[in-house]
Design goal:
Length: 269
């Protein structure tokens, strides 16, 4: 998972109707999400495209590539009743663009995984560290500690890493290191269905490919004299794996970082 700077949604989409619907919550002019989509077809379509663009044409959670219009507009805090909670939903966030994420259907929908036979997907789940702290208004959100990783929070995205052999996501921290951060990663993997079998296989293939390229780059980097043309060409060969638009690029970046080569692509980091 790579962090998504969702502030750019304001530049990528027209939000007039969305903001008007947000201002009307709790008044006689209040509408539902479905009504907003039906009454503002053009703007809602632009919003979907804007979210897709800001997320580099990928699912914000899984990094799976999406075609234009293919993803789901997902409410991080559910607009309706959160599953398993005695709560009416975060109605004040129903039309708040800051609460919107863009998700692959596999992430957003509850369904049984074809390999593990486990029911996975976010649906309307929004678990908290302390269920009693669930907010009843916007101010109350400050008291919540969400379990689920949020792709718009950079530090959250660092809680995940990947097993190179299988491509499966895993918690960066062991339970003994930090039980809370471990829990957040493990439950996010399940709720977001991040370990879907075909995604794991793709990550494993990509990580294998990028490791070979990194080993070749290391050989070129230490050769005396160094062949600058070959060295630069190898860097160019690696870039498409780790750029923001690349599918599952965080897994590939992990390999580059582990090989000590990040400086070649992002000097000063």
């Amino acid at each position: 998972m790579r962090p998504v700077d969702n502030k750019h949604v304001r530049r990528a989409a027209t939000l007039d109707a969305l903001n008007a619907a947000s201002a009307a919550v709790g008044t006689a002019n209040e509408i539902t999400w479905d009504e907003y989509l039906r009454l503002n077809v053009a703007e809602a379509g632009q919003l979907r495209t804007g979210l897709w663009t800001v997320g580099c044409m990928k699912c914000w959670f899984s990094e799976a590539t999406l075609q234009q219009g293919e993803g789901h507009i997902e409410h991080f805090r559910p607009k309706g009743k959160p599953a398993g909670a005695a709560h009416n939903g975060y109605k004040w966030r129903a039309f708040d663009w800051r609460n919107l994420r863009y998700a692959h259907a596999t992430v957003n929908l509850r369904k049984t995984d074809y390999l593990t036979k486990r029911l996975m997907g976010k649906g309307t789940y929004f678990p908290l560290q302390d269920p009693a702290s669930r907010a009843v208004n916007a101010a109350g959100e400050n008291n919540e500690s969400p379990v689920l990783i949020d792709p718009v929070i950079a530090s959250d995205t660092l809680l995940l890493c990947f097993d190179e052999a299988s491509g499966a996501p895993k918690a960066r921290y062991d339970k003994d290191q930090d039980e809370w951060l471990h829990r957040r990663a493990v439950e996010s993997i399940d709720y977001y269905h991040l370990n879907e079998g075909t995604w794991n296989a793709k990550r494993a293939d990509l990580m294998s490919e990028i490791r070979k390229l990194c080993e070749q780059l290391l050989t070129l980097a230490t050769a005396q004299p160094r062949d600058e043309e070959a060295y630069n060409s190898k860097i160019d060969e690696i870039v498409p794996y780790i750029g923001p638009f690349a599918e599952f690029s965080s897994a590939c970046l992990q390999v580059v970082r582990e090989q000590g080569l990040l400086e070649c692509f992002a000097p000063g980091i």
